[in-house]
Amino acid sequence: MADNRLIPAAVFGGILALGLIGGGALVGQGVVNARIGDRSVTVRGLAERDVQADLAVLPLRFTSSGDVLSEVQARIDADLVIVRRFLTAQGYPADAVTLGRLEVADRRSREYGSQDGGPRFILAQTVVVRTTDVARVQATTRALNDLVRQGVVLQDFSGPSYIFTKLNDVRPAMIAEATASARSGAAQFAEDSGAPLGPIQRATQGSFEILPREGYGDASQSPDQRVRVVTTISYRLK
């Protein structure tokens, strides 16, 4: 009788074991499918475009020094007349030229306390040219020796700044180009892996950069510039 009871129990145990094995297989298959469903590839797309700066800013800072403030001021005023006349001769309209603040330094005041016998007062005046005529500013920069010959002392001159202001005009096309570049890379990856490329899972647009066209230096020092954007896009793999 005991043996007869053991047979159904063994059969039941075998069925239960088979069920667990089968269930485990199904669970395992579900995990594999989930991983396949979550597969993705992340790629970057690059777009670059050569552009020409459309705005130039030319600051001219000139100085004069001496021990009598009124005399130094008179020389600064005379230099200002020369600078304005020079810029007018260069072809700039009046609204393209603005007068900056007048800087006055007393080297013997408490702030400086210099007793080295040098000039007591140093005055500096800045005139700023702001124009969309970039070529004219380039020509003016080459002609600045005329000011020096007339006795105008230019200080801390680092050249004009060139600015590209039409980024919004090129932004849509460059984003589309960067996206197409990313998709091309993702499609190649999908082909190599044997998995069809799916839709975009997520995308991040990088910031636009204004770079020197030649790849070195400061972009603002030359009107020849390059705009670059990099997008990062994740695609699903089917």
Short description:
The chain is 41% helix and 33% strand. It has 238 residues and is α+β, with helices and mostly antiparallel strands.
Detailed description of the structure:
It is a single chain. By secondary structure, the protein is an alpha+beta fold. Helices cover 41% and strands 33% of the residues. The strands form 2 sheets. Strands 2, 3, 4, 5 and 6 form a 5-stranded antiparallel beta sheet that branches. The model is unreliable at 14-36 (pLDDT under 50).
Which of globular, elongated, flat, extended, rod-shaped describes the shape?
A: elongated
Cα gyration radius (Å): 37 Å
Work out the number of β strands: 9
For the sheet with most strands, the description reads: 5 strands, antiparallel
**Distance between the amino and carboxyl termini:** 59 Å
Helix content: 40-55%
Output the number of helix runs: 5
How much strand? 25-35%
Mean pLDDT: 84
Uncertain residue segments? 14-36
What sequence of helices (H) and strands (E) makes up the elements?
A: HEEHEEHHEEHEEE
Structural category: alpha+beta
Considering the chains and any ligands shown, give keywords for the structure.
alpha+beta, 5 helices, elongated, 238 residues
Helices and strands in order, then pairings?
Blueprint: H1 2-37, E1 40-52, E2 55-66, H2 69-89, E3 97-106, E4 121-131, H3 134-142, H4 145-149, E5 153-154, E6 161-163, H5 167-193, E7 197-205, E8 209-212, E9 224-237
Antiparallel strand pairs: 1-9, 2-4, 2-5, 2-6, 3-4, 7-9, 8-9
